[in-house]
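Hey all, sorry for the wall of text incoming. These are the three entities for the joint prediction.
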Amino acid sequence: MISIDQISKNFGALPALDQISLALNAGKSYALIGPNGSGKTTLIKGILGLVIPTSGHIYFDGKSINRDWKYREKIGYMPQIGRYPENMRIGQLIDMMKNIRQDKPKIDEDLIDAFKLYKIYDKRIHALSGGTRQKVSASLAFMFHAPVLILDEPTAGLDPVSVELLKEKIIHEKRMGKLLIITSHILSDLDEIATEMVYMFEGKIQYNNSIEALKSETNETKLNKAIATLIRQRELLASITD
Amino acid sequence: MKRSVFFIGLVLISLAARATTIPVGARETIKHIKEAIQRAEAGDTLLIRSGIYREGNIILEKQLVILGENFPVLDGENQYEIFTIHAQGVVIQGLTFKDTGIASISDLAAIKILESKKVRILGNRFENTFFGIYLANSSNIWIENNQLQSQAESEHQIGNGIHLWKCDHITINNNRIRGHRDGIYFEFVTNSLITNNYSEGNMRYGLHFMFSHNDEYRNNAFTNNGAGVAVMYTKGVTMVNNTFQHNWGSSSYGLLLKDIRDSFVTDNTFIENSVGIFMEGSSRNEIKSNSFYQNGYALKLQASCDDNVITRNNFQQNTFDLVTNGSLVLNKIDGNYWDRYEGYDLNRDQVGDVPYRPISMYGTIVERMPQAILLWRSFLVFLLDRAERAIPVLTPENLMDQVPAMQPYDFY
Amino acid sequence: MNRIIKYVFYDILRTRFILFYTVFLLICTFAFFQLDNDFGKVVLSLMNVVLMAVPLVSVVFTTIHFFNSYEFIELMLAQPINRRSIFLSEYLAVASSLCLAYVVGIGFPFLLYGAWQPIYTLLITGVFLTLVFVSLAFFSSVLTRDKAKAIGIALLFWFYFSLIYDGILLWVVYTFSDYPLEKLTLALIAFNPVDLARIIMLLQLDISALMGYTGAFYKNFFGSNLGLIFSISLLMLWVLWPLLFAMRIFSRKDL
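and here's what came out:
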């Protein structure tokens, strides 16, 4: 559904993405992991068209996204840090988003109900805690039945109950056959959600395979253990080749 | 007084004569003006029927009244001077003069009056004449209600509208003059009166005035002339209630005063002139109760002027109120209204409590570099002027109005 | 696009800055009317305000607004909306609210005093100046991510066109005053929107200022219909080029 072809991105002299190629297919859910600054968010922003790659192409449904914007109606995006007009009230924000996406008559308000956001519709954005912001972001991302969901650190800052609610929703959407791209540092969360794993390091994709394959390769049953083993193997390999 | 003497004189003359009226025209027995003049005797009236008369130069040396009926046309065929008068008590009324010859050596005119007295030129029309009315060595002449119009293209191809040389006791009233070199020209003319005339669109000056003492001009309007009005080398001129408007150009001014002494410039209006009054080498004049409105420079006062009094004038919306080229202050500038004045009047006596410096630094810069006018009303100029007013560097420190008026004077 | 403009408008109105600006202009205009009964002079005093304050307010307000709407812009960018529409919506909303404030603030007192005639030029040039400096401010805003830096660049534009440029012009005139400079200065004027606006206003409102031959030359040029069309198109160009450059940068900008 999304295919990434040899994209690079430099911020100044600093390479954030280095010749990345990746195919993301409908019905699968990808866990995008890697240490801080490995280029995960840049990659996501690249898919969304927020960051323009220095070279390479990204195709959505076979069409290059360069100078295209219409494809974004098929993406629900939950940013790492939800930034919204600070003076707006939550209700106004949600209304505005509905208004701007008038082409979507069917609105998915499951998360708004689940998080009981309607109770705090009058609160202004600048008065919100980080967790509540995440709830707003999550609600907005799922609102328009988008076939692709990109979730950047969806569970960070959420209380355990809300994390469970969100996970349920994500699993539900996954079952509906949507393409999911999730980044998270909390690997145990990903265990239940993701089917594929993309491991990024210093702007490069180090590993890209299904989680099943990863677990059998490393002889681990838990995803976090499996990744730790993977990283150690890689480091060992690097020291030998040096 | 002059007027009544004139009239009594005329009455006496007409009583003495056996006044006959001789009609002239295509259907009359006498078909030509020249012939009629030859046959007429002093005191007769020639009644010119309407029509076109091409008779070349007509010389008139008899005391005759020449009256036009429905403005008969005397055509100079671009070749001749039309009337040359050398007589007393002549009246020319109701004629149209057109197309005189053009000659740069002899000043061809529609009516030339030489060494004559008590002549009256009334209600005639002049179209495309080289000189309109030309007077030399004459006195007690009355020129009234005439219309003079020419299409001047360059100064050399056109003469003056009303031209006077060495005359005395002349009245020029209610004439309209346009398109000549100078509208009215005075040289060595004394004790004369110029009133209610309208001089517009002349190549050079609306009024050109030299060596003409003790004259007065009132209620005239001088509009859109090449270089405005020039009054030069004269003493004892009174200029009252005239309007100088839109005399526009690099060397143009509403009124040029050059070497003028003991004269009065009062109750005049100066609107939209490049320079309202340009004063050079002039002394002991009084410039009072004039309105300067929307001129480039309201007043250019050269350092060669002294002992002039400039008082009770209104200076409004001029680009620059006053500019001078020296640092000495020899003239008295007091009690004027300056619309740029920002002082206060604590004791409410209608007089500003702090003096006003009417000279702006930028005015001085533009005087030297005319192109700099492009920056007028820019922030830069505003700052420069403010700085200069606080600490005068370029402008004379002592030139100021000590008692500026708080309100504009009401002259009407 | 209309929907986005609506939300930007809503955001602008809530800060009340536009209201203050309108009131400030109203107070200025009424104050000038109180000080002077001469409409001509009121217009000329306002001209100074227009030339100074309008560009300044436009650049400062626009840059601050742009950076305050960063979240909104980010949010919109992740939606299926063209970047150009987002940018143009921002521009149109900011420019039209500033223009509206200006027209009401200056125009209303004149309407009240029944002096509608003399202020056409003032209104039109003021609106143009607003548009030009909003464009320039957007341009400086997309050049950098740093709000302070962007305001700095925008203020530099203002300072340059209001003061420095004229200083250079005066220097040129002074240095080359022995040469015929009319055409050169005419060309130089075209490179400064503030000077252009000022000259247009001078020719309509303060004709006495441009006296003499030099003045007549400029008057013949700018005063003719051709000159008016020329100067209006130049002002248009001054609205368009920073806007188009800004839009170009914005549509390739990383957020």
